[in-house]
Amino acid sequence: MTDSFQTDIKYLAGVGPKKAEILNKEINVFSVEDLLYYFPYKYIDRSRIYFIHEIDGNMPYIQIRGRITAFETFGEGRKKRLVAHFTDGTGFIDLVWFQGAKFITDKYKVNLPYIVFGKPTLFGDKFNIPHPDIDPYISEEERPTGLMPYYNTTEKMKNHYLNSKAIQKIMAAAFSSVVRSLPETLPDSIINEARLMGLKSAMRNIHFPVSTTLLREAQYRLKFEELFYIQLNILRYTADRKSKLKGFVFSKVGDYLNRFYDENLPFPLTNAQKRIIKEIRQDMATGEQMNRLLQGDVGSGKTLVALMLMLIALDNNFQAALMAPTEILATQHYQTITEALAGLDVNVELLTGSTKKSDRERIHNALLTGDLQILIGTHALIEDTVQFSNLGLVVIDEQHRFGVAQRAKLWSKNVNPPHILVMTATPIPRTLAMTIYGDLDVSVIDELPPGRKPIQTIHQYDKKRGALYESIRRQLQEGRQVYIVYPLIEESEKLDLKNLEEGFEHIKEIFPEYTVCKVHGKMKPKEKDAEMQRFVTNEAQIMVATTVIEVGVNVPNASVMVIESAQRFGLSQLHQLRGRVGRGADQSYCILVTPYELSADTRKRIDIMVESNDGFEIAEADLKLRGPGDLEGTQQSGIPFNLRIANLIRDGEILQYAREVAQKVLDEDPQMEKPESLLLKRQLRKLGGNKYNWGLIS
Hints:
Layout: H1 16-27, H2 32-36, E1 42-45, E2 62-74, E3 81-87, E4 92-97, H3 101-107, E5 113-118, E6 121-123, E7 126-130, E8 133-136, E9 147-150, H4 155-159, H5 164-178, H6 188-193, H7 199-207, H8 212-244, H9 255-264, H10 271-284, E10 291-296, H11 302-315, E11 319-323, H12 327-340, E12 348-351, H13 357-369, E13 374-377, E14 391-397, H14 404-411, E15 419-424, H15 430-436, E16 441-445, E17 456-461, H16 465-477, E18 481-485, H17 493-510, E19 516-519, H18 525-536, E20 542-545, E21 558-563, H19 571-578, E22 589-594, H20 600-611, H21 615-626, H22 652-668, H23 677-689
Parallel strand pairs: 4-7, 10-15, 10-16, 11-13, 11-14, 12-13, 14-15, 17-22, 18-20, 18-21, 19-20, 21-22
Antiparallel strand pairs: 1-9, 2-3, 2-5, 3-4, 5-8, 6-7
């Protein structure tokens, strides 16, 4: 874009240095271009004027015309409020302010005609409009028609007179100064193929829409562009990686896998497991480096699939490594895998932060000679001191705990990068996976091993404690173990820890005959691991914890998960927590404890949990209810999640289409050398130089 777009915001009419500083800090707007890409979050039709007698409780925003008959003040101190009695001749309504009384009474006068705009709320038996917009009355001819945009503003902005209306004015000044020189950001071929509105028209209609039809067209154009460039970058990066990186060829299946399959397989493979092993085998035989994401609900048998693939690496004279995010999870993987390989001549070791120096040296040497075939560990695996003789496959568990840079570090552990299998128990809907993990091929295990009973989820109100404790006691008497989870929200961390401590003491009183342990994020790792271990070995029968138990520990004997204040958790988090039980053959229960008073959205969340055990269905519903937000770890994925206008859930169809168009561009011009690709390259570079990390990982 030309220099006028990079003009500092402080030089715009109505801004100046002080307001510019607020816009910089609060909404990351530094230049005219940043401002133009600060889109409204909603639009309201201001052409209609209502009568006061028409008002009912279901109206979102209304506009009325009339006059103030009197001002009155009510309450004292913090409860003090200013009320203006307003009438249009058909009835009365109160306009209410909780602060700024002097400013209001100086600015607005009794018996003058005004236009009032705001959201009516019922207080007692009377409607009022809190903190309304008030404008002097202007004639029908002069009044703006059409849709009025509303911009998100913060408290700090409002305190410096930068409300939505002020942003509109600044936007109009910015737009009129640069609109003529606004260059197109997509080639004509794509604009024509996708039937898109031009950028100038799109920008005009997103900020100053004349009709809903033109607004929809503008939104479609800008959403398409945003998603198209993300997908073009991912596809280009993937193609680039595949052409540059040669992968190892795993051409055979030999003794290691066959013996394991014949002698040690704990139960028959599900059809989903068989399908995925076949998919990945094909990947690893092509000579291209594999990067694959394996998604599967908790308990679906991902570790078994990973182990069999590691044995194929061994059959082809390569080493394999498995990396987990915590020591306790790495240790658990080590125990599971060594037990599964009992009787087979496979050398497996564990390397974590607490591995003794002498063991560490022994492991380093065995890796270099090739005697050590499978190494399991934490981040310790990617330290420079850890060198392999011939690393062929790396399995990464719970990908969202590792950044792209960490994944990339593993690539340098051999002459060619090893094949990489990334596993996650966090179900990610397809549209999201296409973006977060767009550089990975995706496999999904969509069935549970036989014999696993679905977890029964029960919603219980917190007033009915007696029945809750009774059902817990029954399970404990049968020799089972119980998790009791408390929420931990950063803003109120002290209070939450106090609740946990009180909960811990309370549970000890209720169940004096059982041992209770506790785990929370403020504990030292060693302390935490020791408490976890007490639960794993059944030394403790009840674990009181915060969400730190979400990822990892497998306790087949734990059959009850009680989630206190379940209304404070997101759906995906509830599902992850629920997956901590149901690891054994016994019927397991998840009890969601909430107060009676729940919002409609929360009630919906709880109902979905009670009705469904399907992680993908739940993740989809969660995204619809909450929006993608900063999905855990996505900031590490090299994809910008501060999307300005597109929504990965609602705009799934546009995303799919944008990906197809991007793929077509690369099919026709793989190196992007044609003249029409220059604009695309320039735009990608520009986005790369912004706050987005688009770069090829090396």
